[in-house]
């Protein structure tokens, strides 16, 4: 019997992992896939760093630098749940990519290094999640090493993130003695992730819990478990879903502890695909008609095919292979003849996808970041953000004859979200903007590799850029004509004001009070 849309939606969990570099995101991803049954052997994800070519190792630059530049999706099925794990770039120069990916998830796992606690990037990513009320499950990793006391870690999460914590498990031992997790509410023990089921016990003092520890650590463990139950907040589902409370799990991704607890938590606690806000209405995940939006474009996933894949998050209905969709930006129909699913080590044609699923749609430049696809309804999803670039450069071409080719290439890169492209009103050469310097390296690499366009970058006389608008259109026109040399248009033709520095930006903003200058533009 085929499942209903509501049943399919109820089984889905779409999430990302947020963490500071080195906290263990890659290792955890690998183990989630391993214990989730998606891969036979650990090492597929990890291989990236060892410079072995893997499917997710799409770009040369990524291999060279050993960092994950691209965002990918990994799907696995475990205990009748379908998990879509959206990977995010680890390097902060690709932060805009990460933020866009977070618009496509319903929950996040926050990985914390047990010795280091909350680190700067964790904090920043957490703030993005909070803006979007994304519920967070915390995984305290590296308990097999010298770690802080669990209460201290919980306290730090509460203080630094202003987020209530509810410990769900407690580590049995720490560092060398770490040997499993104790489920506080269930009074159950899991020795390691090789055990698929937990074992019920009478309490923390049992042989399977405290009994596993060296004698001198037993009393502390029993006492801490008692205190965790009495003094910490119990798990509250509403508070969790509203983003006010995080359930906390302890473990070691490397040594296979706590990963199964985490998968089960995602399955039982994390929400099913949420409703999405569009311009004319809120779209429920269980609505009959298919809707989806593009949050990521990836070119050259397979160097042999020079393809361009748009990653869409399905928001409602059923996306079926062969269906015709309507692209909201142009109003044109688009056949979805070869949508793809991504598993850890392979792609597969997708016959049917439901809300929460992420599907890759091969195309030749038809789709852009932020695009909405529907079954005909004129509806546009809100909220895939565009961040004002912090670095602005003019692209200098070695061969001036290739200016037209460069223009086309830059346009394509901008549509993929690699860079932002601004065309000055005064007709001077285009300016590219990026959030982090590594994006410029990617641009340079791709221009030379894919388009045989060797380029260098010149400093622009601008360093700040803001999208401008006004309630009174005449006032906007007046501002634009007074500042013609400092105005450019983005890919959508929206005007931006370019300023030499923050000082001159503030100066103009104070003189032109009716002009709104914003650093984040939501697509469309
Ligand atoms: P990422 O930068 O967040 O993706 O972190 P990685 O997964 O690459 O891990 C960074 C380092 O920490 C690697 O050397 C891992 O082997 C190590 N690591 C990850 N998880 C654990 C763990 O649970 N225990 C220990 N001892 N080391 C770990």
UniProtKB/TrEMBL annotation:
InterPro entries: EF-G-like_DII, EFG_III/V, G_TR_CS, P-loop_NTPase, PrfC, RF3_C, RF3_dom_3_sf, RF3_GTP-bd. One of its GO terms (biological process) is regulation of translational termination. Keywords: Cytoplasm, GTP-binding, Nucleotide-binding, Protein biosynthesis. It comes from Hoeflea marina. Residues 10-274 form the Tr-type G domain. GO terms for cellular component: cytosol. GTP binds at residues 19-26, 87-91, 141-144. GO terms for molecular function: GTP binding; GTPase activity; guanosine tetraphosphate binding; translation release factor activity, codon nonspecific; translation release factor activity, codon specific. It is found in: Cytoplasm. Belongs to the TRAFAC class translation factor GTPase superfamily. Classic translation factor GTPase family. PrfC subfamily. Residues 191-210 are annotated as: Disordered. It holds the Pfam family EF-G_D2. Its main location: cytoplasm. This is Peptide chain release factor 3. CDD domains: RF3. Increases the formation of ribosomal termination complexes and stimulates activities of RF-1 and RF-2. It binds guanine nucleotides and has strong preference for UGA stop codons. It may interact directly with the ribosome. The stimulation of RF-1 and RF-2 is significantly reduced by GTP and GDP, but not by GMP. It comes from the Bacteria.
